[in-house]
Write a structure and sequence with these properties.
Blueprint lengths: L3 H7 L12 H16 L5 H46 L3 H43 L3 H10 L6 H6 L3 H16 L19 H14 L4 H7 L23 H19 L5 H7 L7 H22 L5 H24 L2 H13 L3 H11 L2 H28 L3 E4 L2 E4 L3 H20 L22 H5 L18 H5 L3 H7 L8 H6 L3 H22 L1 H9 L3 H13 L1 H15 L2 H19 L8 H29 L11 H24 L3 H25 L6
Antiparallel strand pairs: 1-2
Helix pairs in contact: 2-3, 2-4, 3-4, 3-7, 4-7, 4-8, 7-8, 9-16, 9-25, 9-27, 10-15, 10-16, 10-17, 11-12, 12-14, 12-15, 12-28, 13-14, 13-17, 15-16, 16-24, 22-27, 22-28, 22-29, 25-27, 26-27, 26-29, 28-29
Length: 698
């Protein structure tokens, strides 16, 4: 178990120690304030003013050093530019290669500077969260609001790395010109889409994107998986042993994800008809659909705990249970038993291995392709969501096979049971258990980075190449007085294996993000689960039309994420997109109400599309922010961040499906408005809560 302060100190560049945020000193001050307030020795206003002054001084120290180093980099680039101009007159390939290496050297130094900025940004966020947690002042909201929007903001320099982009541009442009000496008259500005084949530039761009939370389609899509990364950046890339990574095992996890989502949504278009054929009301479809989610509440926990020890055995168990559940679901018609139908869906929920799928990607996939794997996880889910209803629309059959009835109601069960049987055989033959599962109870205490040029080019550095002045160590003596034992206990990296420990780590910002996730899952479940009943009542839609509508909704997931991930998220901050998406979800809900005018197909389709698409956009941004504001301790253990978000979403689905069934007792004519009303209330609550915590999402 390694304290955050110790990790921060271990990962600092030694010669720059005096310029980093003095996290221990500030933590000591927070502890001192707490004692003084308990004793009645100071007022709240004094604490806020004094701590603000300390933060301002720390940020000023960081920013001035950052500007100094930027100036040194600019001077070196200017000198290299003069040498490059001289080579234009008399080209010398030996000198050109030397010049290219000199530019790469500047790039490596820039990487260390970016690493310096990122560590300080994490430290600032950490101490702000600690202050808010200790005193409950919402100090972060005040500090960010007053500092970030000021015209002379130094906070912007830390969090937005103002000015470093010019250095990146200069290095990229000159390396591109030196790389192509074949008479081309085009520059990187003429061909912005053409990648520059320089590893150091790729690493710099990745570091800048990570620092600014810039994104693209792949990373935005991968954020939906909520596979949390280390809170502190590390200069040493953590390699996962090749023996642990197995491509076919990864594919089997993604196929499991796909099949489970198909299994979830394949019954939605026909659940009401199936319920009526067994003598129940059409709105009992809410319980039929929700039974799977109820069971998933429990299965997520034991699968998460099981994945600490194995991946193969949970997947085998999952496949067997899902096979049995689908057989029961299909046989319920011939047995004329609504109980068997519900038990079949419960068994399907008990086989939900999404926690294992997510955990496998987090633990066994190398870092360099983990984002692609995360995006694959989300894509498999989205594809399954679209294929489920579409497949149900194609299964418009009715015949007898021996004594078994095969029709549009039972065919989904038989198709899925056969699919899980094939998957089980494939899993047994092809899956490879990782050789050594990660020990969740230990974390590496420190890292020692190599210093060869190859590693430097990948962004792994410990020895600084930019040294211009002596670091300031005037706070060193006071820093040593900090209580290290308290640091170790409070910032322990121990995994979270109890719900109580997880709850204690939930800050107001985390709770708000979980509320938003609950809201969007509730709204989406209401829209999807009651679609068959609502459209049949108002428009007389057949199962095929309902299936097409739901499939079209599912097919919007990837295109929408592509647009948001590649363009919108690079134009606006995540918190801005979050709030705008919530408002659009609220607008879609309001449009869906049946008030006075006759309810029409365009109103239902357009409002449903707005609600669903906005919720999809909201989910990606919400999970990205959740991983950012959530404690890094929640990236480990049974009750990790992924499990908490899954449980929040599953509870929302359970309540939504229960609401549909209860509202059915009031009659199908009132079903739509009664089920939409809670969605509207929760959505408004989430918007208000977002406004209150908006500045803490900076």
């Amino acid at each position: 178990m390694v304290a955050f302060g110790k990790k921060l100190k271990d990962r600092q560049i030694e010669e720059w120690n005096g310029y980093y945020i003095n996290y221990k000193l500030m933590k000591k001050k927070v502890k001192q304030y707490a004692r003084q307030i308990e004793a009645g020795g100071v007022e709240r206003r004094y604490v806020l003013k004094d701590f603000s002054r300390m933060l301002d001084n720390q940020i000023e120290k960081i920013v001035l050093f950052l500007l100094e180093q930027q100036g040194l980099l600019a001077s070196r680039l200017e000198e290299l530019g003069l040498q490059q101009d001289a080579l234009q007159e008399e080209p010398d390939f030996v000198k050109i290669n030397e010049l290219r290496e000199a530019y790469r050297e500047v790039g490596r130094d820039l990487l260390k500077l970016l690493f310096f900025v990122e560590i300080n940004a994490v430290g600032l966020r950490k101490i702000l969260k600690k202050f808010d947690k200790r005193f409950g002042y919402r100090f972060t909201d005040y500090y960010v609001k007053t500092r970030a929007n000021h015209p002379y903001s130094q906070l912007q320099q830390v969090f937005k790395h103002v000015g470093l982009g010019a250095v990146v541009g200069a290095i990229s442009r000159n390396l591109a010109e030196l790389q192509d000496r074949q008479g081309s008259y085009l520059s990187i500005y003429d061909q912005p889409a053409l990648p520059l084949q320089e590893p150091v530039i790729d690493t710099i761009i990745a570091a800048v994107d990570r620092l600014s939370y810039s994104t693209n389609f792949l990373t935005f899509l991968g954020q939906h998986a909520l596979i949390m990364q280390e809170e502190l950046p590390t200069p040493l890339e953590e390699h996962i042993d090749d023996e642990r990574y197995h491509f076919m095992s990864l594919m089997l996890n993604l196929v499991n994800t796909f099949l489970y989502m198909v299994n979830t949504y394949i019954i939605v278009p026909t659940a009401d008809d199936y319920s009526m054929s067994l003598g129940a009301a059409a709105t009992v479809c809410g319980i039929v659909i929700g039974a799977m989610a109820v069971a998933q509440l429990f299965s997520s926990v034991y699968f998460s705990a099981w994945s600490n020890r194995s991946y193969f055995r949970p997947l085998i168990f999952s496949s067997i249970v899902l096979f049995m559940g689908n057989v029961m679901y299909a046989m319920a018609y011939d047995m004329n038993s609504i109980t068997v139908l519900l038990l079949g869906r419960v068994f399907c929920g008990l086989g939900s291995a999404r926690a294992v799928n997510r955990r496998y990607i987090s633990d066994c996939v190398p870092l360099k392709i983990r984002m692609q794997a995360s995006a694959g996880f989300v894509s498999a889910s989205a594809l399954g969501m679209a294929c489920g209803p579409a497949l149900a629309g194609l299964l418009q059959v009715k015949f007898k096979f021996y004594k078994l009835t095969i029709d549009q109601n039972t065919a989904p069960g038989w198709i899925m049971s056969f699919s899980w049987l094939i998957y089980l055989i494939w899993l047994w033959i092809s899956f490879r258990e990782p050789g050594q599962l990660r020990d969740e109870n230990h974390a590496p205490e420190s890292t020692t980075a190599p210093t060869n040029s190859d590693v430097l080019e990948k962004g792994s550095t410990t020895q600084p190449l930019l040294i211009s002045s002596k670091p300031h160590n005037d706070e060193e003596d006071e820093d040593q007085e900090c209580d290290v034992s308290e640091e170790t206990t409070e910032d322990s990296r121990a995994p979270i294996n109890s719900i109580g420990a997880a709850y204690r780590l939930l800050t107001p910002s985390v709770k708000v993000q979980l509320l938003i996730y609950f809201m969007l899952k509730y709204a989406m479940e209401i829209l999807l689960s009651e679609s068959s009943v609502v459209t049949t009542y108002y428009f007389g839609w057949t199962t095929g039309k309902v299936a097409i509508f739901l499939a079209c909704l599912g097919l919007t997931v990837l295109p929408v994420n592509m647009i948001v991930g590649s363009y919108i998220s690079n134009m606006f901050e995540d918190r801005q997109i979050l709030l705008a998406s919530e408002i659009m979800v609220c607008f879609g809900i309001l449009m869906s109400f049946h008030v006075i005018l006759p309810y029409s197909v365009p109103q239902y389709v357009v409002s449903g599309l707005i609600m669903f698409v906005s919720a999809e956009v909201l989910e990606g941004v919400n999970l990205a922010l959740l991983s950012r504001v959530m404690s890094s301790r929640l990236s480990r253990g049974t009750f990790n961040g992924g499990l908490l978000s899954t449980e929040a979403g599953t509870i929302a689905r359970v309540i939504a499906d229960g609401t549909i069934t209860l509202a059915g007792y009031l009659g199908e004519s009132k079903l739509l408005n009664v089920t939409l009303l809670p969605s509207l209330v929760i959505c408004i609550m989430s918007i208000v809560a977002t406004c209150f915590t908006y500045n803490s999402l900076y």
